[in-house]
Amino acid sequence: MYCRSRILCLTREILPLRNKIDYIKIRTMSQGESADFKADLKKRLSPIQYHVTQEKGTERAFTGKFNKTTEAGLYTCVVCNETLFTSETKFDSGCGWPAFNDVIDQKKVKLTTDTSNGMIRTEVQCGKCDAHLGHVFKDGPPPTGRRFCINSASMNFHPINQEK
């Protein structure tokens, strides 16, 4: 297996595939089952996590727990545990939310047009479960020039021991 970095190579070691079955269930639900799934999410997620991921909300700037995180590791979707970002692409943009200049794999996210609040932006959703993550802008650093501005409430962080 080709790896772009040590962190990406270690991904399979620290993240279980336990949610693969849950993902299949998410994609094949009836309306009644979908309501049950949403009720389960309300129990499993904190109010801010639910608001951000399911209602396309935004946490207040500079309040997210991962805004200043500099530790090496992986960021996963809080809903389905899909690996989305690595600390290698994280940077301090000063915007008040965790910022990344790239995703681990383009297939891991969906980019859609968001015209809410009188603006035209590009929304970032989890490619696996459609959870709202944040937005992407074209003002990031090289080499991509993109700034994925992601709500901490939409992610979990998995530190990687650098001594392996």
TrEMBL record:
EC annotation from Swiss-Prot or TrEMBL: 1.8.4.12
PROSITE patterns on file: MSRB
GO MF terms held by the record: metal ion binding; peptide-methionine (R)-S-oxide reductase activity
One term under GO cellular component: cytoplasm
Keywords: Metal-binding, Oxidoreductase, Zinc
Cofactor(s) required, per the database record: Zn(2+)
Entry keyword annotation includes Metal-binding: yes
GO biological process: protein repair; response to oxidative stress
InterPro entries: Met_Sox_Rdtase_MsrB, Met_Sox_Rdtase_MsrB_dom, Mss4-like_sf
PANTHER family assigned to the protein according to its UniProt record, in alphabetical order: METHIONINE SULFOXIDE REDUCTASE, METHIONINE-R-SULFOXIDE REDUCTASE B1
Function description: Methionine-sulfoxide reductase that specifically reduces methionine (R)-sulfoxide back to methionine. While in many cases methionine oxidation is the result of random oxidation following oxidative stress, methionine oxidation is also a post-translational modification that takes place on specific residues.
Protein name: Peptide-methionine (R)-S-oxide reductase
